């Protein structure tokens, strides 16, 4: 249910906080027509391709889907799981950074709150997995916190690119959306539907989606 909630938040944020503003920003630059839609399409595909490349390049492991990426026998299973969470977190940080860089608090705050809410069960999953491997509570908490530090890195990168070059705004918004959409489709939804929990996962997705929509309209 928590993973479904995360998927709903990310799905809603991808469209209402990133893709639609990307098309609007491109429309302001190039006027109505096919160009704004084309920029959104290319940006989304580029974001998906980037995360797909990370997914194929870095060895990692999921709860239900097992190992992906190149085989590395030197890495323990728990660290493969941590790498998977890190790959997942980078697009989220990128999206928040792009939102703040594009529209300041108005654009970034709904994203930051929504992504922050869905990070709580994610961090708990990492900590519990580490505890099950015999790690102490302090080490488990510390490593779980470290997996989230990639989000500020992605956020700074996204905000810097958008802040220094306004023409990149629609591209950056669409790219961040594509990165999150890849994670939703390739990582989260398959995980939630492989063990017979699809009803709970769909309920979580619905709650996450409408909550993020509410935050975006209310705060944005």
Can you offer a commentary on this structure?
- It is a single chain.
- The protein is mainly alpha-helical and 220 residues long.
- Helix content is 83%, strand content 3%.
- It is built from seven helices and two strands; from the N terminus they run H-H-E-E-H-H-H-H-H.
- The chain has helices at 2-30, 34-57, 77-132, 137-148, 150-164, 169-193, 198-219, and strands at residues 60-62, 66-68.
- Strand 1 (60-62) and strand 2 form a beta hairpin.
- Helix 3 (77-132) packs across helix 5 (150-164), helix 3 (77-132) packs across helix 6 and helix 3 (77-132) crosses helix 7.
- It is globular, with a radius of gyration of 17 Å.
- The mean pLDDT is 79.
* Overall pLDDT metric: 79
Query: What structural class should be given to the helix and strand makeup?
Result: mainly alpha
**Beta strand %:** under 5%
Helix percentage: over 70%
Order of strands in the sheet with most strands = 1-2
Radius of gyration: 17 Å
Strand runs, count: 2
> What is the first-to-last residue Cα distance?
27 Å
Unreliable sequence segments: none
Number of helix segments?
7
Q: How do the helices and strands follow one another from N- to C-terminus?
A: HHEEHHHHH
Overall, the morphology is globular
Largest sheet: number of strands, sense, barrel closure: 2 strands, antiparallel
Write the layout of secondary structure elements.
Layout lengths: L1 H29 L3 H24 L2 E3 L3 E3 L8 H56 L4 H12 L1 H15 L4 H25 L4 H22 L1
Antiparallel strand pairs: 1-2
Helix pairs in contact: 1-2, 1-3, 1-6, 1-7, 2-6, 3-4, 3-5, 3-6, 3-7
């Amino acid at each position: 249910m928590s993973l479904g909630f995360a998927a709903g938040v990310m799905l809603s944020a991808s469209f209402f906080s990133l893709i639609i503003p990307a098309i609007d920003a491109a429309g302001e630059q190039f006027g109505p027509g096919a160009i704004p839609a084309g920029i959104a399409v290319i940006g989304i595909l580029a974001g998906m391709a980037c995360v797909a490349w990370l997914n194929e390049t870095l060895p990692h492991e999921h709860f239900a889907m097992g190992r992906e990426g190149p085989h590395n026998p030197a890495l323990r299973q728990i660290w493969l799981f941590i790498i998977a969470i890190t790959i997942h977190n980078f697009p989220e940080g990128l999206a928040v950074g792009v939102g703040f860089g594009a529209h300041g608090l108005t654009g970034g705050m709904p994203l930051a709150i929504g992504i922050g809410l869905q990070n709580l069960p994610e961090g708990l999953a990492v900590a519990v997995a580490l505890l099950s491997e015999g790690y102490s509570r302090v080490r488990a908490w510390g490593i779980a916190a470290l997996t989230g530090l990639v989000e500020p890195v992605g956020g700074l990168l996204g905000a810097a690119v958008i802040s220094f070059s306004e023409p990149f705004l629609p591209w950056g918004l669409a790219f961040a959306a594509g990165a999150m959409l890849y994670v939703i489709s390739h990582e989260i939804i398959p995980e939630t539907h492989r063990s017979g929990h699809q009803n709970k996962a769909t309920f979580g997705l619905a709650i996450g989606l409408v909550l993020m929509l509410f935050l975006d309209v209310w705060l944005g």
